[in-house]
Design goal:
By secondary structure, the chain is mainly α. The protein is built from 13 helices and no strands. It has helices at residues 19-45, 55-83, 99-123, 126-132, 137-149, 155-177, 185-208, 213-237, 250-279, 281-288, 291-302, 309-331, 336-341. Helix 1 runs parallel beside helix 11, helix 2 packs across helix 8 and helix 3 packs antiparallel against helix 7 (185-208). The relative contact order is 0.19.
Length: 343
């Protein structure tokens, strides 16, 4: 039900973006950051490129950078809710969500995704990540939404997903064929697919619990920070693991904290969750699957990585699956966003 809007002057009531505009802006920002994430992560995590930081160091810098922004924010939100008698949050007030939900979204959206994805870049090129990270999201998210949320799969969406799976097989399958010839690329491909599965679980959990974008991103960071940062600090300082985060050039660490932490976690994390709220988890992951083409071309341009025929064919199939699947889903979409806005 809509109500008449009170008349107000332009000076006292600045214009607000419509829900559609917010969803579209979130999609554009998320796609841009995810594209940059793939290229930059490969450039820094690949040992052959002379990077100082290990994948585990990059995860550490990611969580510390994000934590500097989100943990005080989470404490303020938890304190505000506690004073209003609306709950106490968890993790000492750093997460505004209950502990059970914080643990679930934090493990999948924070810890597992980052650890699997960054280690994948050690073995496989950015073009493979371009297809297998965002390209696998629609498949896993659709299956999980079917099992957990009871979503239905239309024939149009099924055909779009079949094209995306075909693209993934062309890229990942070619690596598996060379699994016994000394090539380790297949390890990176499996890590990318596993990371996509972890992020898909997070996507469906956001929808299942109808989580607010900011609070969900804070909870993910709070859980991952509380588990990973203290343990890794002790292991590195004690000499039990070969991390370089405390010995690397400070400019390199600050850059990773800024881009991987503030950019990839704070900005794109909130943006992606806003997309889920507006488009739903399946449509959101299909929209972000436009990242494969953009990031593969960027990797070829900036990193000099080749684009063999199977990667190009995989990109074509994934892109076709995205366009077809999103168009068909949009034509018969269930008004879940309107229902969520009323909750």
């Amino acid at each position: 039900m809509s109500f008449p809007t009170p008349v107000a002057s332009s000076a006292s009531a600045p214009p607000r973006l419509s829900p559609h505009a917010v969803g579209l802006l979130a999609a554009v920002v998320t796609v841009a950051i995810w594209t940059s994430f793939i290229v930059i992560a490969r450039a820094t995590a690949d040992p052959a490129r002379g990077g100082t930081l290990t994948p585990f160091d990059i995860v550490y810098a990611r969580l510390v950078g994000a934590g500097l922004v989100l943990l005080p924010w989470g404490w303020w939100l938890s304190r505000k809710a506690r004073l209003a008698g609306q709950g106490r949050g968890s993790l000492g007030g750093l997460s505004p969500l209950p502990l059970a939900i914080t643990a679930r979204v934090g493990v999948f959206g924070g810890l597992l995704y980052a650890l699997l994805a960054y280690n994948g870049f050690v073995f496989a090129p950015a073009a493979h990540a371009s297809v297998l990270l965002p390209g696998s999201l629609p498949l896993w998210t659709t299956l999980l939404a079917l099992l957990i949320l009871g979503d239905r799969i239309s024939w149009g969406r099924a055909l779009g997903l079949a094209l995306i799976v075909g693209g993934d097989v062309l890229v990942g399958g070619a690596s598996l064929l060379h699994a016994f010839d000394g090539s380790g690329v297949w390890r990176g491909d499996l890590l990318f697919i596993s990371a996509a599965m972890a992020w898909s679980v997070y996507s469906v959990l956001v929808r299942r619990y109808a989580l607010d974008a900011v609070r969900a991103t804070i909870a993910v960071t709070a859980m991952a920070f509380a588990v990973y940062v203290p343990v890794y600090t002790v292991l590195v300082l004690g000499g039990w693991v070969g991390g370089h985060v405390f010995a690397a050039p400070w400019r390199e660490v600050l850059f990773q904290m800024g881009f991987q932490g503030v950019g990839s976690v704070v900005v794109s994390g909130i943006g992606f969750t806003k997309m889920i709220q507006h488009y739903g988890p399946v449509r959101s992951t299909m929209i972000t699957a436009i990242v494969p083409g953009l990031s593969a071309l960027s990797a070829a341009l900036f990193l000099g990585e080749p684009l063999p025929w199977n990667v190009l064919a995989g990109l074509a199939l994934v892109s076709a699956g995205i366009v077809f699947g999103v168009r068909k889903v949009a034509a018969s979409a269930v008004p879940a966003t309107a229902l969520k806005a009323a909750q």
